[in-house]
Write a structure and sequence with these properties.
alpha+beta; Chloramphenicol Acetyltransferase; 2 domains; seven-stranded mixed sheet; six-stranded mixed sheet; 11 helices; globular; acyltransferase; Plant_metabolite_acyltrans
């Protein structure tokens, strides 16, 4: 391995941050209990020496992380999973004990290669991903940390900041909020007062009473999930995959929108997300060599932040999960046909308009979500992770905008894409894909060819 671990430490919130905290999981959190950790890497251009990194950068990151945890105490806590009990799971923070695991490392790997868009061996990225400590079995419950962090120096080239979190801790809105807060306090040299002056309105709200659950859906879900104990997470190695990034420039996106609207002039919700998701989904399905049944259904699954879309609405800075989802479905033969892209755009736009953006529908049948999630394990589905809305790459630790974001956790899913704003193309989007090499080659050719019209 080209990576050397220099230090593993535990970073607590500052003394006197708060008393003990127990945060119960809601019905939005509980379905994610057995989901793999979300793993993200941010690569930054920052050519510094190892001595400067160890003497200046690393201490500054630790100090700013501690100050950030004052406002984000759940990240220093553990998930408590009760055994043989009616008690429900919670995230527990214990003052004076709870802390976040932070690994400091150095790598001799090729920074330029890792941050390219070309197809790269997916396995190599796991050297920079933090590992969440194993599950601890107690007599009445299981315990596991909710977060792990890793910072890797590429001497003279750059820095990678790696994040791993349990999905039951919170959705992208919540976790990205933490990452940006840590980056901001770090950039401000630990000036917490200035941070609070600028970001007071976006500080996380931990109050679970803002989640309305009159049907007791959390209890319904827990009765199903409690019978399956937690398992320690592990990396999906070898992945037998490569990772590649595809850029859709603003001109490409506008061209795709115009193409859809020329065929379907009355269609609403023809957003950048809709045409990007539709285009990538159709390219992905077409890249498969052979399908036995042309009539088989293909699904596109996407999550959506519904804080403002439910009644009563949930505050934008609520920390936790607050996701609804859409599921577009189309027969395989239609999706790979000449009108496949337009049909896909219509199906996804319909899910956004009539389900995700519809206050009457967005939580309809929520008590059945667990059984629906289990069904999704057996279908032919393509998903999406991340959103340009949260713009994680803008998290600036004082080194500028991130050069590259890699959502490593899509390796552990059947098939999914990551989506974020493009660094190099104003108004453009970056799509991350993880596939076996032969299929990636086929996908790349179809993706490139499809934009020539």
């Amino acid at each position: 391995m080209a990576t050397t671990i220099l230090e593993i430490c535990r970073v607590p919130a500052p003394p006197g941050a708060a008393a003990d905290l127990s945060l119960p999981l809601t019905f939005f959190d509980i379905p994610w209990l057995h989901f793999h950790p979300i793993r993200r890497l941010l690569f930054y251009d920052y050519p510094c020496s190892k001595p400067y990194f160890l003497e200046t950068v690393a201490p500054k990151l630790k100090e700013s992380l501690s100050l950030t945890l004052r406002h984000y105490l759940p990240l220093a806590g553990d998930l408590i999973f009760p055994l043989n009990s009616e008690k429900k799971p919670e995230i527990q923070y214990v003052a004076g004990e709870s802390a976040v695991s932070l690994t400091i490392a150095e790598s001799a790997s090729d920074f330029h290669h890792l941050t390219g868009n070309h197809a790269r061996d997916a396995d190599q990225f796991y050297e920079f991903v933090p590992e969440i400590d194993p599950v601890t079995d107690e007599s009445e419950y299981q315990r596991v940390p909710v977060v792990a962090l890793k910072v890797t120096l590429f001497p003279g080239r750059g820095i990678c900041v790696g994040f791993a979190n349990l999905h039951c801790l919170g959705d992208a809105s919540s976790v990205v909020g933490f990452i940006k807060a840590w980056a901001s306090i770090s950039k401000l040299g630990g000036d917490e007062e200035e941070f609070l002056t600028k970001h007071a309105e976006s500080l996380p709200i931990l109050d679970r009473s803002v989640i309305n659950d009159p049907l007791g859906i959390d209890t319904i879900f827990w009765k199903v999930i409690r019978d399956v104990p937690l398992k320690s997470s592990s990396f999906p190695l070898p992945t037998n995959r490569v990772r590649a990034t595809y850029i859709l420039r603003q001109a490409d996106i506008e061209k795709l929108k115009d193409f859809v609207l020329a065929k379907k002039p009355g269609l609403l919700q023809v957003s950048s997300f809709v045409v990007t998701a539709s285009y990538v989904w159709t390219c992905f399905v077409k890249s498969e060599e052979q399908v036995d049944d042309d009539d088989v259904l293909e699904f596109f699954i996407f999550a959506a932040d519904i804080r403002a879309r439910i009644d009563p609405p949930v505050p934008a800075s609520y920390f936790g999960n607050c996701l609804g989802y859409g599921a577009a479905k189309i027969e395989h033969k239609q999706l790979v046909g000449g009108e496949g892209f337009v049909i896909a755009a219509e199906a996804i736009a319909d899910q956004i308009k009539n389900r995700v953006n519809n206050k009457e529908e967005v939580l309809k049948g929520a008590e059945n979500w667990l059984s629906e999630i289990n069904k999704m394990k057996t279908i032919r589905a393509f998903g999406v992770s991340g959103s340009p809305k949260f713009d994680l790459s803008s998290a600036d630790f004082g080194w500028g905008r991130a050069r590259k974001l890699e959502v490593v956790s899509i390796d552990g899913e059947k098939h999914s894409m990551s989506l974020c704003k493009s660094r190099d193309s104003e108004g453009g989007l970056e799509v991350g894909i993880s596939l076996p090499k032969a299929r990636m080659d086929a996908f790349a050719a179809i993706f490139e060819e499809g934009l020539r019209f």
